[in-house]
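Next comes one such specimen:
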Amino acid sequence: MQTAQTIIKDYRRKRVIVCVTVALVTLVLTLGIRFISQRNINQDRIHDFTHHTVRALDKVLLSLEAQRETLLSLVGIPCSEANLILRKQAAILQTVRSIALIQDGILYCSSVFGSRNVPVSEFVPELPVSESRLLLLTDRWLVKGSPVLIQWSPLASDGNDGVMEVVNIDLITKMILEPQRPQITDVVLRVGDNFLRDGQQVTTTPTFDENASLLEQSSQHYP
């Protein structure tokens, strides 16, 4: 009789152990599957946000290119005739803070200030140049000390004549550089060797969290 009871107790104990083991394995598998699934969802969200950010900036810059020929045709025209057209174009584009015409390296007409006679290099030392250029700089002209994104379009191969468009970077950073927490904790715009975070100044030496995973997405139009 005692032997039978012992066998029954051992059986029940083993059955409990088996049931608990199966339950633990099921729980671990369920949590593992959920973790992997959530990780994949988070990665997809991060990639989607990155692609959306790059496309949004491309859309802004490509809209400027659509008006390039119209603006380049104004280079050489007296500012008294070109200024109204520049102001209208700046109003149409909306994302542009100002448009300036440069002839022989001299900024002679601005949509904001009208007629000028100042070497463009005083405001942007990198200009003029013979090829199209996208520059992320600190503004020395309109809102001094603030970040500024400049698109330069030369008229001829010598690069002394062209159009300089100053993009409203404050508007763009609010649209594309605000991180979507908790998956994304930081967003940085890089143009050339310069970097910009929303609400901060342009820098050449950005700092990142040592434990953070970094994802970089380049523009196909402005690599």
